[in-house]
Amino acid sequence: MLQAEAAIAATGGKGRFVILSGQAGHSVATEITRGYDETLRPYLERGDIEIVMRQSHSAWSPEQALRTVEDALARGGKLDAILANNSGMARGAVQALAAAGLGSAGVFVAGADADAANVDFVCQGKQTIEVLKDIQPLAETAAEVAARLLRGDPGDGHRTAAVPVEVIRPADVKPRLIDSGFLSASEVPSCPK
Q1: What's this model's pTM, rounded to 2 decimal places?
Q2: Is residue 193 assigned to a domain?
Q3: Of 50, 51, 108, 112, which alpha carbon lies 20 to 30 A from 157's?
Q4: 74 near 102, Cβ under 8 Å?
Q5: DSSP 190
Q6: Is residue 134 within 8 Å of residue 182, measured between CB atoms?
Q7: Dihedrals φ, ψ of 8, to 5°?
């Protein structure tokens, strides 16, 4: 949802979007893409946003994502936003845009996982945002849920546990990623120190 909200803000809620989903049938890919759909629904219904390509990618493949974006570009028309379920597929999108000479053409590109290469792309202006899903809170929450289940405590009865995620832009890299130790400064050489 954060990616879609940022794309709406960046495009003024109009344009031609590409959705790069992870492995078909994978619950995480399904839920991330469902978040896109729910957030974009009013814009799609009004015809302000058009999904020109929606594709699942086996093994969340960056190479397949690159080909999907190449295909979307080959079909003609300007692309305004690309929403990728993970960092690897966003890297494929960035590579496809660069190969087409559109690396700085203002196409909004969002990835998720805050991989070092993608965060560096954000600082270079090749990618717009990354979404950080910090490993420590994910691991702690998983351990808490597992311990509760082992004790026979069903908790609140929900099948999922929400963990905070956040949008990463260049100004967020040092305070949120480098200072916390999530990434080292050497891993993101293009980012402000």
Answers
A1: 0.90
A2: no
A3: 112
A4: no
A5: T
A6: yes
A7: -60, -45
